[in-house]
Amino acid sequence: MELEKVNRLPMPTWRYLKTNDSQLPFAMPARPAKAVWSDASYLTAGAALPENFEGASPAWKDAAASGEAYTVRIPADEKVLLRADIVMDAASPDYAGTYVFRVEKGAELRLVWSWKGGGEAGVCALAAAYELEEGAVLHVSAAEEGLSGKLLCTQRAARAAAGARADFVSADLGGQTVITHSRGWLEGKGAVMHEYGLYAAGGRQVLDLFYHIDHTGEETESDIEVKGALSGEAKKVFRSTIDFKRGCSGAEGSEGDYAIQLDPRTKNISLPLLLCTEDNVSGNHASSAGQIDPGTVYYLMSRGLTKEEARRIVVESLIRPLIDRLDESLREDVLAGVRAKLDAEGGEP
Amino acid sequence: MSELLRIENLHVSVGEKELLHGLDLTVRAGEVHVIMGVNGAGKSTLLHAIMGNPAYTVTEGRIWFEGQDITELSTDKRARLGLFLSFQAPISVAGISMENFIRTAKTAVSGQQQRLFPFKRLLKARLQDLAMDPSYAERYLNDGFSGGERKKSEILQMRILDPKLAMLDETDSGLDVDAVRIVSKNISDFHNETNAVILITHLNQILKFIRPDHVHILIGGRIVKEGGPELVDEVEANGFDAYRSLAGEA
Fold first, then answer.
1. Which residues of chain B have pLDDT under 50?
2. Where along chain A do its domains lie?
3. How far is residue A180's CA from residue A157's CA, in Å, rounded to a whole number?
C-alpha cells in the first residue's frame, strides 16, 4: 500500500521531531458501499466543496470525490434529524463520499453518521463541508466500530456565521488506521464550535487526529477535547490548533488531549497549538498522558471491584462525559464497543 | 465474641523503609478499637496493610480475618470478605455517579445483584441519615466535593456496603462540629454485636459519641501501650511524650 503525508501542522515545528505531518497508508476506494439516509428528501445530487477545503491531503480529497456526492439543504428555521448508515461489508468494503451541508438561518440539523462493517480490508474516504448561516445549529454525532481492517479518513470543514453553533462528537473504536481532519472558521460574532473526540484503540491501531479552528469573529468560542485509552501497541497523534485572528476580540478557545496508556508499548503524541494575533482573547491548552493512577485502582478495589473492573471504570469515567454528548441512538452501542475493546485488550500489560 | 481480625508480628515496608516493626492486634466482633499516635507513627500504614494496599509490603508476620489468612489476598477479595477502609483522603472519579458506583460496589461485596428501586430507596435513606442532599446520588464520585463531603461520602459507602470490619482513617478530620455529630451517629448506628470498628483519630470530639473498648497508642511503628477508654483522657492530658520513651524515641 502506498504512503501519503497527511494532517500537516499549520505552523511546522522542528523537522527532527518528525511531528509536522504523518506518513500513513493510502488507497483509493474500489468497491464503495452506499450511504442509507433516514430522509433523502433533503438531499440533491452533486456537491461542490469550497475552494479552501483542505482535507487530510489532496489525494484523500480526491478519494472522497471519487464516490457519491450530495448537497443537503436545511431550510431556514426548520429542525431536522438525519441519519446516515454506512455498512462496509465483504461485498462493498469501501466508501467514498463528498457532501455539502447548508444549514440556513435559524435552522437546526442533528446529524448522525454510523459506520459499521466487518474486519475485512477496506477504505473509507469522506469529505463534508458544513456551512452555517446566522443562528443555525448543527450537532453531528459520528461513531464507527467493528472496522478492524479498514483505513478510515474523515475530512470536514465548518464555517459558522454570527450566532451559529456547531458541535461535532466522534467515537473511534475501529479502523486499523483512522485519519481525522477537521477545520473550522468562526466568522460571525458569537459563533461557537465544539469538537469532542473519544476513542479506544488497541492492537496496532493508528489514530491520526487533526483539528484546526480559526477565530475571526468577535466573542466566538471554541472547545476541542479528545479523550481515550490506548492499549497493545496502539499509536495516537493529536494535532490541534486554535488560531485567534486579528479582530476576534473577546474570543475564547480551549483545546485538550487526555490519554490513558494501558500498555507501556503504546505511543501518544500530543501537539496542542495556540496561535494569536489579537490581544483581547482567552486561550487554554492542555495535554495529559499516562498510565492509570494505581491509587485510584486501589481505592476502587477497596470497594470490592476486581483490578480489571477498576481499570475499566477509570477508562469509562474518562470518556463517559463525551459518550453522553453523542446522539442518544449511538450511546449504548458505543459504550458496549468501548467495553468490548477493553475486555479484549484487558489484563496487565 | 468471635474473633474477626488477628495480626501477629506484622512488619510492613514501603520500598526499603520499614514502617511497622512487629505489631500484634486482635479485634473481636462487637468491639470498637481506637488507635492514637503522633503523625507518622504508622497508623494509616497499619490500616492500608490490613486492606492490602500494594504500595505496602508485608515483610514478616500474618493477618487473619475470621480465621482465614489474608496476608497475600488482593484488596478486592479482602473487601468481599467484609473489610472496609474509609480513606483519609478519598479519591475522586469524574465520570461515574455516586449511585452507580455504590450500587456496583454493593453488588461486588454482597455477591447479589442490587435491584434498582430498592437500592435507590436505601441510598436515599442513608443520604438523609448523613444530612446530604439526594442530588449527591447523581454527582460524580467525590468529584468537586469539599473535604467534609468526601468524609461523609466514605461513611455513606460504609453504611451501604455494611462491612464486618470498618476501618476509619481520621474520618473526623475536616468536619465541623455538626458534621462530627452526624458522622458519629452514623458510625454508632452502623456498629453492632456482629461487626467491629477500628478508628484512627487525633481528636476527642468523635470519642464523645463513640465509646471505645480498646485504645492503642502507636509510636514509631510499634504499639507501645494499650488500655481502655481511660487512655484517651491520659493522652488528652499529657500528650504523647510519655510514650515516646516506650518506643525508644527521645
1. 250
2. 2-292
3. 11
Tell me how far apart the alpha carbons of residues B197 and B215 are, in angstroms, rounded to a whole number: 12
If you write DSSP's letter for every residue of B134-159 in order, what string do you get? GGGGGSEETTT--HHHHHHHHHHHHH
A294 in reach of chain B (CB within 8 A) = yes
Structural contact between residues A160 and A131, judged by C-beta atoms closer than 8 angstroms: no
d(CA A207, CA B242): 64
User: How many CB pairs lie under 8 A apart between chains A and B?
Assistant: 70
- Cα separation, B31 vs B194, in Å, equals 9
Overall size of chain B counted in residues: 250
**Are residues A305 and B76, on separate chains, in Cβ contact within 8 Å?**
yes
The amino acid at residue B156 is L
- Please judge whether A321 and B94 are an interchain contact, meaning their C-beta atoms are less than 8 angstroms apart: yes
pLDDT score, position A344: 76
Mean pLDDT of A155-160: 98
The predicted pLDDT at position A9 comes to 95
CA nearest neighbour of B161 among A298, A310, A300? A300
What's the pLDDT at B249?
Answer: 61
Residue A153 half-sphere exposure toward CB, CA atoms < 13 A: 29
pLDDT band at residue A302 under the 50/70/90 scheme: very high
Residues A318-341 pLDDT 10s: 998 899 999 999 999 999 999 888
Question: Which cell numbers hold the place of B54?
Answer: 500494594
User: Domain span at residue B183?
Assistant: 3-247
**Is the pLDDT higher at A227 or at B238?**
A227
Domains contained in chain B, number:
1
Q: How far is A209 from chain B (nearest CA, A)?
A: 23
The answer to whether B54 contacts A307, with C-beta atoms less than 8 Å apart, is no
To the nearest whole Å, the CA of B173 is away from the closest chain A CA by 19
What pLDDT is attached to residue A347?
46
pLDDT, position A345: 67
Strands A235-244 and B57-65, how do they pair? unpaired
- Contact status, residue B219 vs residue B225, Cβ threshold 8 Å: no
* Nearest chain A Cα distance for residue B238, angstroms: 36
